[in-house]
Design a protein that fits this description.
Layout: H1 9-16, E1 25-28, E2 31-34, H2 41-51, H3 56-67, H4 71-77, H5 82-97, H6 104-119, H7 130-133
Antiparallel strand pairs: 1-2
Helix pairs in contact: 2-3, 5-6
């Protein structure tokens, strides 16, 4: 049996060369930011964590990955609300993965659709009693009293 070769990701990534694109720029509260050129692995991990967490620290870490370590403080100091943050995150996440794929207006529409979906309860099914499920309408069959 021949020995298993080591999978050399360092060599593979070096052959691929550096990323050829730059991150998408944006202006928010009078300050310019530039999104990462590619989606950082740390962002993916943090995004998963935020989906299952209500801890503010997780959201702060997520924002720092995209906008820098001071972004969350700057956003809150300038009065960013929950809806604005939601729109920003949808837009930034999409445009980090595929620059130019979504406008701010489209991100706002997606955010509103998600919020609307959260607020809607599933439509209730009509409650049927046992007799409503019988198709013959003959009522309950007589029992022999014997258990099966």
């Amino acid at each position: 049996m021949s020995p298993v070769q080591v999978a050399d990701f360092d060599a593979f990534f070096a052959e691929q060369g550096p990323a050829k694109r730059t991150g998408v720029p944006l202006r928010l509260f009078g300050r310019e930011y530039r999104l990462p050129a590619t989606v950082p692995a740390l962002f993916t991990v943090q995004l998963h964590r935020v989906q299952h967490s209500a801890r503010p620290e997780d959201i702060l870490a997520l924002l720092a990955t995209l906008f820098g370590p001071d972004a969350a403080d700057d956003f809150t100091a300038r009065g960013m609300d929950d809806d604005q943050l939601g729109v920003l995150l949808i837009w930034a996440t999409a445009n980090t993965a595929t620059p130019g794929c979504i406008t701010i207006g489209e991100a706002a529409k997606q955010y509103q659709q998600r919020e609307d979906a959260k607020g809607k309860a599933p439509s209730p099914r009509p409650i049927q009693n046992r007799s409503g499920r019988r198709s013959t309408g003959q009522g309950k069959r007589p029992s022999s009293g014997r258990r099966s």
